[in-house]
Amino acid sequence: xxxxxxxxxERGCSGxxxxxxxxxxxxxMAAALxxxxxxxxxxxPRPYTTEAEARAARGExxxxxxxxxxxxxxxxxxxxxxxxxxxxQVDQGGIVLRQWDALAPENxxxxxxxxxxxxxxxxxxxxxxxxxxxxxxxxVWDWNIRNDGPGIATLFNVHFIDGKVVRxxxxxxxxxxxxxxxxxxxYYGYPWGWGVGWGYPRPFHPYPFGHPFFW
Length: 215
Fold this sequence. Notes:
5 helices; four-stranded antiparallel β-sheet; Beta-lactamase Inhibitory Protein, Chain:B, domain 1; flat
């Protein structure tokens, strides 16, 4: 009888180990599928060979930029919620010469003092929102970019005075919580200190109810 109990116990332990191993394998497979899905989502768009192919895949571009060399750049922005802007340069015959993400870090670094608004738009694509600061005389455009900070989003800001770039900055967006602030949202350091707004990702409103709270 003791042998029977021992064998039953061994079968129970073996069954428990098998169930645990099956569960562990299932979790590993789920994690692998999640990683694969994430890679698929974040993968850059495949290279296009013709303008017709790009338009078939992406639709009509938001803007078409005529270049001095006779080529055309098609702009596919994803603002205000997205963090990429696909640019596709084609020749006069509709053949794709190159394509790139206008909001990639190396392209953001090309914004420099003295550029005008059209040059910045051609470089980065359509911006997310804009606002004016009377005390500094600045007009600030922002773009939602890949988040590398502690908040829920990262904004790249370009500051203009008299239509020319004077500097750039970066803002980390934090959620506002609680019964009072939860519905309104706000930005920390956008570009100086707290501001009350309509909440991310909709554009920041500098004068809610007509009152300059953060001036």
